[in-house]
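Q: Convert this sequence to structure tokens.
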Amino acid sequence: MSVDGLFAPAVLGVAPAIGRGTLDGYDAGSGTKSGAGVGDGIDTVAEARELVAGLLARPWGQVSASPYETGRLVSLAPWLAGHTERIRFLLATQRPDGGWQSSGDHALVPTLSAVEALLAEIGRGTFADPDLLVKAADHGLEAVRNHSCSAASLPDTPAIELIVSSLFSLIDGHLDGEGPKPPPGVDGAKLAAVRAWLTSGAEIPQKLVHALEVAGAEATAASGILPTPMPGGMAAVGASPAAGAAWLAASPGSGPGDAAVRHYLEAVVASTGGPVPCALPITVFERGWTLSWLRRAGIPVDVSPELAASLRDGLSPEGTATGPGLPEDADTTSVALYALALIGEPHEPEGLWPFETETHFCTWRGEEGMSPTTNAHVLDAFGEYLRRCGGEPRHEAVVTKLAAWLRDRQEVDGSWTDRWHVSPYYATACCAIALREFGGEESAGAVGGAVEWVLGTQRADGSWGRWEGSAEETAYALQTLVLTGAALGEERWREAVERGYRRLAAIRDGAAPSLWVDKDLYLPVAIVRAAVLGALHLARRALSLPEGDSY
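A:
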């Protein structure tokens, strides 16, 4: 498997883009298109086919680099190729206020990781320009000290309390006890309990392995965790470069699979020379979402036998995992099933039954929270199976139960929010479209409320977005308006779609924010590009624009 070119623009400090013209979706250009008319030459079918071909060319997936995960490799694996480039990535991506990645509470984790990594490197004394590191670390420490939050206000990201506790402790050690203090309510008790659990010999939840770097060397060495074998003589620990580096650091050269984990880490950074994502490979996750967005939008893309087989072969009675060493989850399982159904290969959703609870479906077994978008995707999977195969009463019961559960989770303003994506436009699109397709007449009010919310939150420039207008969020808003059909034909509906289409056509090649949730925020490049192409295609049809013409 090759990971050539996955994150090269990120090494240069260029934010990923999701526009046309490259298989990987990155574009270091100006971010806008010029021409006589907005939308000149858009051929969504041709671009979608190019995108699908790129899924096979990049089998591990296309994910933006993570400041958090990259910082952990700087700290844990200075021996790994690309160490200097990882440091330069951190220096290049520091914000003017001293923090990293997004503003607000989501910035705490990547900022702590970057600061700790820089302090670790200062302690080694090997970087060519130590003053640059000191300046960046001091600025980052200032941002941490100015960051006001509590345990209750921390965002719902994987293992966040453990990660925050671990990083504050490490920073405090670098600064001889004079480091910034953790947020109120983050006292390290949960981290201590997890470390004790790891050393006790008890069975370890698979989801914890994805953030194994929080455990410390002693607990990791005693845990008995083994890496997950991969093709090509590689092995991953929780599909995470940081977890793999932590596993190696706990017992360098002595554990079974040591060489295979090293080979995995080397493969991840082979072409980038440095920055890494939070999770890789994401093969089934990327392919399921990409094909779902395109096919649901009606774009006639051909799916090769190899591509279909990669989705089919990942199915099991226990579900499908996003990556090697991660637990099976209902989200990836349901989207793989839905994508297979859309390409004409419906399967009984047996891999979803283990995730059913009395009221809804959990993302993974033992989940502490709940996800509306996961349940919307499960509704898609069961609903499409019923549509194509008839199904049984138990399948119908699931559809009825999930539709009611999703309606109950709708916000008063008509939107939905979710733990796996920071934008309500993503959650609202997932939920409203699933309810429109499979929720019955009882869901008409909820769908109409979602459309009203989308219409009422369009920005003056025609875009949509939580923090600012973005191509990704504008795509979700347009899909909600077109695929639900709740206001189809109304003058204000057409005006909103026209303005949204024009804006999306203008900004689709621009830099894209990281809005998806892992240990920090990330951008799944191919998935988002598919959502944008799907929205453009749908809007063109709704506005009766011929393919390839200007608006």
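Residues 159 and 397 are 34 Å apart (CA to CA).
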